[in-house]
Design a protein that fits this description.
Shape: flat
Radius of gyration: 29 Å
Largest sheet: 2 strands, antiparallel
Distance between the termini: 64 Å
Number of strands: 2
Structural class: mainly alpha
Order of helices and strands: HHHEE
Length: 92
């Protein structure tokens, strides 16, 4: 299997020297060979799965659990307007 490491590195936006590319070529070729071996496995009749365990995720009710404290938190502020803090202009 001929792997062009420099082309893959370029597509991945990774800068490699020729020496680094030569060192990585056998490793990448080995990985691609393993992927080819996996594609030979017969998976007919095997349903696709997203998780190895057949579990259901518990879901909580989508309700507000903490009340709005905006008014109490803004009370010590020198100035507020429409629920926002008003601060002095910094840039002209």
């Amino acid at each position: 299997m001929d792997i062009d490491v420099k082309k893959i590195a370029n597509l991945s936006r990774i800068r490699l020297t020729d020496v680094e590319a030569a060192d990585l070529a056998p490793q990448l070729s080995s990985i691609m060979g393993y992927i080819d071996k996996l594609s030979e496995v017969n998976t007919d009749g095997v349903p696709p799965t997203a998780h190895p365990h057949d579990v259901a995720m518990p879901q909580r009710a989508d309700v507000v659990t903490n009340p709005s404290r905006r008014d109490a938190l803004q009370q010590p502020a020198p100035r507020t307007e429409s629920g926002l803090y008003v601060v002095p202009k910094v840039l002209e």
